[in-house]
Design a protein that fits this description.
There is one protein chain. The chain is mostly helical. It has 2 domains: 84 residues, no CATH class; 38 residues, no CATH class. 76% of the residues lie in helices and 0% in strands. It is built from 6 helices and no strands. Helix 2 packs across helix 3. The longest helix is centred in the middle third of the chain and has 26 residues. The relative contact order is 0.09.
Amino acid sequence: MHLAPWLLFTGVALACFGIVGLLQKLSTDLVSAESALVWLIVGFLLLEPLVYSGRSMFQYSGRSVAFVFLAGVLNALGSWAVLAAMKSGGKASVVVPLTAVYPMVVCLVAPIVLQEHITSMQGVGIACGLGAIFLLAR
């Protein structure tokens, strides 16, 4: 059975993010959200040599670098917010799933910004995600 590479990477992401939610709660029980974010970034930096393809970072357009840089800033801010939510008493079993529905923002904005089409079945999925947010927030 042949798996598409994107499906393998998706599985790795699922496993990693599943474990991360537990580790984030355990860490914020012991250190501040700000300290946890610093160590999270150190973890990113230690992993980088293993996943970097070696292509020169300066061969990309300024626009593409700006998009990736902004994504990195927002990723760090979002990570800090998750850590701060847990540090301030949020349960991992609520904070992690609630923040994990962030792709719904993409689903709602992609048709406008990226000119992507949302099918009716995907619309049902978005509605289920909104329902999940409502149920988790109670």
